[in-house]
Write a structure and sequence with these properties.
Chains A, B, C, D: Belongs to the DapB family. The structure is a homotetramer. By secondary structure, chain A is an alpha/beta fold. Chain A has 7 helices and 11 strands. The first copy, chain A, has a 7-stranded mixed β-sheet with strand order 3-2-1-4-5-6-11, sandwiched between helices. A 4-stranded mixed β-sheet of chain A has the order 8-7-9-10, with helices on one face. Strand 10 of chain A pairs antiparallel with strand 10 of chain B, so a sheet runs across the interface.
Chain lengths: 215, 215, 215, 215
């Protein structure tokens, strides 16, 4: 596919361009603070940058009449309103977590929450020492998926990108479901999956778990 | 419930009586090589002993017209034939693995096998050094659940009751689903679940995964 | 060796007799609330029972003039005084933790504490849901071995006999040193090691880490 | 310190410059295929590039009369000869593995190999699916440290940078010592440690484990 990236000079933007190219897709529109390459019509635009970029991003989506994959965090209410308006014309995939693995585990926990009702469960999450929030947003996401309150233990050590362990036990056995991010590459692969999926959709507002649901 | 146990002096039999009692059930029929206690009509009979005991077990089931939970291994074809005949009158739950956790993981792997198709996967199983077969039957069961061939690594060290790890990875992340038996108690709890479930069933031949499926 | 066990009917006592016999040692003195078997002179007496038994235990050690291996917990000051008096005549090994593995890990942490100074470190310990103290005594023991304050996370789930993970991380890598008790058998093997070691010692008061130190 | 890097445009070279700068050291000599920056006298030169670069590297070390930290792999016999000649004038630290953690674990295993003699042990190593050699060189290094033959299991999945688990077990307990590379950063930090250490040394030929030994 021909794709566009907003914020392509940032850490995630660079990685997204690289990852999409590895899968034989062509960057035809590259935007950072301004449009820097515009050599063809993109089929989809991907933005994992800052909320301030959203206006420019949406104007480009409208110009080309193409779908949007949005991984920008810290969106405000009015951003969501604008996104939902645009999603009447073109499909939008918005999520705060584009890791395929975490969304897959959340799906497993949600679907099997009843089976795990009789088990004790606690959660351990490990992140680098610079991460200040405890517990991680992902820990809360997994807790919600399981539909019960879990005791959550947060370790902050070294340079660990992110690890989550959901540990179940009864009298006679334990089950552990764990996820580890090797690198930010995980999120770039999630963006790729979303971009490929959104091409096949009609207008509408979707999250990353919708992408996985319909695989 | 009032229950009966065949082979109640053996390691598993002892544990089954103890576990059922902890859950307020009453042993009313205790059989080892012969009937040793028969103080009331059982509602269900449990047998985790030897294939040679099956004839006596079934004659007791017929005498009381009650269901059977059977965890005996190394059954032959003719045993299955007899069991299926009896299952026309009363429900039978037969399985080589009454661990709730392993059956739950198998169910998860089966249901999500499509989601894991794009991930690399290998399996590690660790058992005590006396276990001779490699890979474990459970490893094969998990592989079948995942519906693809997996490379399986078997460690045989110390007194480990049994541990299985299914490790998935793609470029950017890993997911591990692992199970550990703490002790044989796991299997006694599985027998309990099967016994409680079978009371609510009509005649028929069931496996332990049917028990879990309908929870 | 010929050995004696005080409290041989208890859970640990039974296991000690069984474990020592597996290693070709002979029980010649079996004591529970009273002396129940006394068929020969023991070379060592082992007691993992109650503080109240200590008086009888010591009188038997004096009678035969043999060393003592003591795993009884909750000893009071006066017990220690009596033990130290006796240790002038015969060697005594006393410890609250006869797990070879935990003592080995403590020794590793103590010896390498300087190497780990630049690493972040936190500890996770997992025990069965009935265990009320947090953190475990073993967690504190490991922290002391490392000679620095560690954040300790305590999980209480299911029937887990005991698991400790010391997790180190710097910017680029992690090291985990972990221990898991499979069963109480660990402690019986520790008692065996102490008993075999104490036979070679002169009088004196020793702990289990002395036993491991001189291997 | 003022430092020089040969091969500074490569993946490891870039990372080394960045890591040293984070620790307040100044790059004053940057060399790739030719000298590209030479603004001051370096106190040490670091080379993690190709064997072909060694000649230029050594000529620069001689020009400034400064020590060398060398992480280049696939060195031939004559390279070692030249290095040892140079090490009579200035100290050289040469190693195929500059991970602090792996060298630390090797040191632990070597020092405690006697304590582990009675334990069963096997090794599991997990690397990305592009890695072709099995078992990893590091697995062999750890086996040598332990001074006994170990069964080694090699998993090749996804993008895992490198994970090694040495799993010990006896009848009653398990001990696992494991290492995980988060990223190549581990090796850059090892180079930094070697560079800081080598400044304090007289002439001589050293390996990375010497660096750790004398901390």
């Amino acid at each position: 596919m021909n794709f566009g990236v907003v914020g392509y000079k940032g850490r995630m933007g660079t990685l997204i361009v690289q990852t999409f190219k590895e899968h034989k897709h062509n960057p035809v529109l590259l935007v950072d603070k301004e449009v820097l390459l515009e050599k063809d019509r993109p089929e989809v635009i991907v933005d994992f940058s800052q909320p301030e970029a959203l206006e420019l991003t949406l104007s480009l989506c409208e110009k080309y009449n193409v779908p949007l994959v949005l991984g920008t965090t810290a969106l405000a209410k009015n951003h969501f309103k604008t996104l939902k308006d645009f999603s009447k014309k073109q499909p939008v995939v918005q999520s705060y977590n584009f890791s395929i693995g975490i969304n897959l585990i959340a799906k497993i926990l949600a679907e099997f929450s009843k089976n795990f009702e009789e088990w004790d469960v606690e959660l351990v999450e490990i992140h680098h020492s610079q991460k200040k929030d405890k517990p991680s947003g992902t820990a809360i996401l997994l807790e919600k998926a399981l539909k019960r309150e879990i005791q959550k233990h947060s370790l902050r050590i070294g340079g660990i990108p992110g690890e989550h362990l959901v540990i179940f036990a009864n009298e006679g056995e334990t089950i552990t479901i764990s996820h580890r991010a090797i690198s930010r590459k995980a999120f770039a692969l999630g963006a790729l999956k979303a971009a490929e999926w959104v091409l096949t959709r009609k207008s509408g507002f979707y999250t990353f778990s919708d992408v996985l649901k319909e695989e």
